[in-house]
Amino acid sequence: MPIQIARHRLARRYVVRVMADGTVRLTVPRGASIGGGLAFAGRQSDWIARQWRSQRERDAPWVTGTRVRWRGDLVELVVESAEARLGDLRIALDPRHAVRSSVESYCRELAARELPIRCEALAAQTHTRITRISVRNQRSRWGACSSRGVITLNWRLVQMPPSVSDYILFHELMHMRQPNHSRRFWREVASVCPWWREAERWLRKHGREML
Description:
By secondary structure, the chain is α+β, with helices and mostly antiparallel strands. The chain is about 45% helix and about 20% strand. The chain has 6 helices and 11 strands.
């Protein structure tokens, strides 16, 4: 695989990433050797290969048999002439767009209906005041909150187990009390979401595949 080498003055260690075009990007700290970075990348070869294969699978067209994460499970998609079935969902296909585009558009609309209702319910449960909830197509985070009480959520939360999705909602709600990741913040999270560590483990294992 081609390797793109980039020096970064703020980097503290070697970092390897597989980019969208299949290139392996190696970040080298200032003052560190490129040879050392290449040796580091070589030791990560199994991980790089797995990431590359996973990325190719994500980029492949969706057809019958494609496995899509839904409510936490990997569900096989069934594509027919005018609709696609994903678990209990029956999704009308737009002939002007690819199957994946139609399925994801439907899921985004579903998330825009479901997630604000759930977030408002958990806000009431935890006596947390929020001003607005928006659902977006975020590519690098599951949620965010602002000092004005606005919570932004990733539509892909509907692909997760409900317990993991709820954890992310609780996480953002507790940031209204503690706008940091201090010990006090995590105590607030634990007080309303005792299963947060299990949710974090699920995200570490499966989160990247959905983004």
